[in-house]
Amino acid sequence: MNVRLPPLASRPLALAILVLLASAAYFTVAAPLVAADAANRRQIAELRSELVRFERIAGERAGRKAELAALERQRAMQEGFLQGSNDTLIAAEIQNRIKTLVASGQGELASTQILPSATDGKLKRISVRGLIAIPLPGLVRVFHNLESATPFLFVDNVEIRPRLNPRRRGLEAVDAGILEVRFDTYGFVRSAD
Q1: Which residues does 126 contact at the CB level (< 8 Å), separation at least 6?
Q2: Backbone conformation region of residue 112, classed left if phi is above 0, alpha if psi is from -120 to 50, else beta
Q3: Residue pLDDT, tens place only, 124-178
Q4: What per-residue confidence (pLDDT) applies to 183?
Q5: Which of 105, 164, 108 is nearest to 140 (CA)?
Q6: How much is the CA Rg of the chain, to the nearest whole Å?
């Protein structure tokens, strides 16, 4: 059975079928390709901006290397110096270091005294006087650890006496193996200029 439509109805129907086929082809084939192309263009634009950023960073590499080298030189120059915001806090750090070392050497810290700071050119000397009671092996460890660690500290004005026991007389008055030691410990702070 073959149905013939009048020419006025067949043309719009043919046109509708053509539009339907064209839109089906577009949405199944062309639309995904157009969307993929748009996504690829966005990704290319993002990658180009990243490339520009990476090229800028790579251009700064030589400057950053020079800056890092300068900071490392500055750190190496500051390494042996005491660091702190003021003289009292720096002296307190020295006192704590002495206290810790004396305790590890099985000694007693009798007293510490912060001495006035002295300026010598671009350096400021921070000093602490200590009085300790300690056996000789502990004293050797304390002095060695004070002078060998960083920041650098120095020991000066050392007075060593046997410890006397006031309850005893004569040779018995000396505490066996315990020394009374008075000494100054100092380090240097680099001035800000």
Answers
A1: 82, 87, 90, 91, 94, 117, 186, 187, 188, 189
A2: beta
A3: 889 999 999 998 889 899 999 988 888 888 999 999 888 776 565 555 545 567 8
A4: 93
A5: 105
A6: 42
Q: How far apart are CA 9 and CA 30, in angstroms?
A: 30
Integer CA distances (angstroms), 63 to 26, 51, 52, 59, 100, in order: 54, 20, 18, 8, 43
Q: Is the dihedral of CA 28, 30, 33, 35 positive or negative?
A: negative
Query: Does the predicted model carry a pTM greater than 0.85?
Result: no
Name, in order, each residue with C-beta under 8 angstroms of 183's C-beta and a sequence gap of 6 or more. 129, 130, 155, 156, 157, 158, 159
22 is written with which tokens? Answer: 């064209």
C-beta separation of 106 from 138 below 8 A? yes
Q: What is the pLDDT of residue 173?
A: 47
Q: What is residue 168's predicted lDDT score, i.e. its pLDDT?
A: 57
Low-confidence ranges of the chain (pLDDT < 50): 173
Q: How far is CA 52 from CA 41, 47, 88, in A?
A: 17, 9, 51
Under DSSP, the state recorded for 175 is E
Q: What's 26's DSSP letter?
A: I
Instruction: For residue 82, count other CB atoms closer than 10 A to its CB.
Output: 23
Q: How far is CA 30 from CA 15, 38, 106, 133, in A?
A: 20, 12, 87, 93
